[in-house]
Design goal:
alpha+beta; BirA Bifunctional Protein, domain 2; Rossmann fold; 3 domains; eight-stranded mixed beta sheet; five-stranded mixed beta sheet; RNA-binding
RNA sequence: GCGGGUGUAGCUCAGUGGUAGAGUGUCAGCUUCCCAAGCUGAAUGUCGCGGGUUCAAAUCCCGUCGCCCGCUCCA
């Protein structure tokens, strides 16, 4: 992530930083998000959405579904795009994950260093073997490990440190073959250097001769241990290898599995999209940062199938479209950036394509940096090719709309957004400090995203006010998520609705029986406006449409 | 997996060997009120869990578990 290049980055002053622990506390106190199974002490990496959280999440999800499937965007040629939805099983035939590459690629071997307590991904650790001419008969020269990408100067320093510690005379050139002594640039190149080996290719009984990347003495690395990031389960009552199945680590494969069904039955023509919202599961090594990295999370993914020659055009189209969508749901563009993936960072399916770009948000815990919110990847024809190979079912598309007609395997542009992360971004974005209020803060949701749109509040709980307020409530609740609240004094009720981000508090006061009007109190300004009872619904509807 | 922190009322926390506390919130009633007003009353705890020391443990010791932070990882 570090050396990647931001291709669009509006640098603004970081607005008063959202205190993450207070946001988490608010989410619990006001019923947005609870730790999962909390009465049993919780379970790391899982969260439950409370009454307000599910409203917020559904608002975001429904908006995505509407903008993708119900009214997809107008395409570059002025015609509406064609996107259909699916909702596929979380558990699929396990061959799915062999074909997708997840079984092979989703488990990373890790090694620990007993001296420094650091942990490394084994396939990222490179080992410099001593140059053979220096070896016999003595002294004993260890192998030197480093993390791939470490600058040459740092490796040199490390070797000097080891030499001092072990009391031997060695330098970098003792590890480098004759023909490569003159190195261009600052990094060793594995492709041309035979003395550098990945740790994974070195026999485990040789580990005693290796000095770990940050260690002083050899022999401190443990054996690599596999971390499988896919959750396993069994299908059927009998537990054996043949019943093993997996919880999906991404929703995308459910779409690829149904690509043929959709093409054959739904009268769609390339280019078209298939969209899906659903849960996905990854056994993360370290769930962190509230709901940002959890083990069970929700994705909103759309696979856009197009002709290979048009992949670049559509990649750019969807990148722009998706970035502006986040701004539309209230995520400030000054906290968004696009980040192009480096070549060595690309996923296995995207290596050959036009690339991958992340839409990143400045989360409170990443600030001033950014964290991924959505990824737009050119998956090429990787997935369809793989499923064609593993299932032996033809996935080719026959296009007779051009002359001469052609057969091809469509390429895929995938905008894959995190719904759970989106909720967090919307929450963080909404959290607004305001010392002048009793609540000290308020949630500045865009009205269309707010869990509760309007609160109907009789100023006092008698003198005919509740009757008028309830009548209004019964009308409003059929149109919007509305709350009726007659308890405690008006200030406390305003304060609570500031905390849950209700944009409009509608108060029935002692004047109402006389003038048939109420006051609408605006969350963001605390200003009040007198509105006739029969105009309240239209007033709120208009505000929500913006 | 390693290192650090932490665990007492819904929430924030006090309580270092001697009867389990405060503030706040919640609920009920009064007050009738436009920004957490006031008054009265009520409910809420195996002090994370298990063991040990002691006449006596929230408190000391041992173990264990959960959560948080850092590192590794993060399609």
């Amino acid at each position: 992530m570090g050396n990647a290049q931001a291709i669009s980055h509006t640098n603004v002053e970081i607005s008063s930083k959202v205190p993450m622990d207070e946001l988490v506390a608010l989410c619990k106190r006001r019923g947005f998000i609870f730790p999962a199974s909390e009465i049993y002490g919780g379970i790391n990496g899982f969260w439950d959405f409370g009454p307000l959280g599910v409203l917020l999440k559904n608002n975001l999800r429904d908006r995505w579904w509407r903008d993708m499937v119900i009214t997809p965007p107008i395409g570059p040629d002025g015609e509406p795009l064609q996107i259909v939805g699916v909702d596929t099983a979380i558990i699929q035939n396990p061959k799915t994950w062999e074909a997708s590459g997840h079984i092979a690629g989703f488990s990373d071997p890790m090694v620990d260093c007993k001296e420094t307590k650091l942990r490394y991904r084994a396939d990222h650790v490179m080992v410099l073997l001593p140059h053979t001419s220096k070896m016999p008969p003595a002294p004993k020269v260890p192998s030197v490990a480093f993390v791939e990408g470490t600058p040459l100067q740092d490796i040199e320093k490390h070797i000097k440190k080891i030499a001092k510690k072990l009391g031997i005379s060695i330098s970098l050139k003792d590890f480098i073959g004759h023909q490569y002594r003159e190195i261009e640039g600052s990094e060793l190149n594995i492709a041309v250097h035979h003395d550098k080996l990945p740790l994974t290719q070195i026999n485990k009984d040789k580990y005693t001769e290796i000095v770990a990347p940050d260690a002083d003495v050899p022999g401190t690395l443990t054996e690599p241990r596999a971390f499988n990031l896919m959750f396993e389960t069994q299908v059927g009552a009998v537990r054996d290898d043949s019943s093993k199945a997996y919880l999906r680590p991404e929703t995308a494969q459910g779409i690829f599995l149904n690509y043929k069904n959709v093409v054959d039955n739904m009268r769609v023509r390339v280019p078209f999209g298939i969209a899906q919202v659903g849960k996905a599961f990854r056994n993360e090594v370290t769930p962190r940062n509230f709901i940002y990295r959890s083990r069970e999370f929700e994705q909103m993914e759309m696979e856009w199938f197009c002709h290979p020659d048009e992949a670049k055009k559509w990649f750019e189209f969807w990148t722009e479209m998706r970035k502006s969508w986040w701004a539309d749901v209230g995520v400030s563009s000054s906290n968004l950036q696009l980040r192009q993936h480096d070549k060595d960072e690309l996923s296995h399916y995207a290596k050959a394509g036009v690339g991958t770009v992340d839409i990143e948000y400045r989360f409170p815990f990443t600030a001033p940096g950014f964290g991924e919110l959505e990824g737009i990847a050119h998956r090429c024809d990787f997935d369809l090719t793989q499923h064609e190979k593993h299932s032996t079912k033809k996935m080719e598309y026959f296009d007779d709309s051009v002359q001469p007609p052609r057969r091809f395997l469509p390429h895929v542009i995938e905008p894959a957004a995190g719904l759970t992360r989106g909720v967090l971004a919307v929450l963080a974005e909404a959290y607004t400090v305001d010392a002048s209020r009793p609540s000290q803060m308020y949630m500045k949701f865009k009205p269309s995203m707010a869990p509760v749109k309007a609160a109907i509040l009789p100023l006092i709980n008698k003198d005919g006010l509740p009757e008028i307020a309830q009548k209004l409530y019964y009308c409003m609740r059929t149109k919007f998520m509305t709350e009726y609240d007659a308890k405690s004094n008006i200030g406390k009720r305003y304060a609570r609705h500031d905390e849950i981000g209700t944009p409009f508090c509608i108060t029935v006061d002692t004047e109402t029986p006389k003038d048939q009007a109420v006051t609408i109190r605006f969350r963001d300004t605390m200003a009040q406006e007198r509105v006739a009872l029969d105009r309240v619904e239209a007033f709120v509807a208009k505000a929500l449409a913006e």
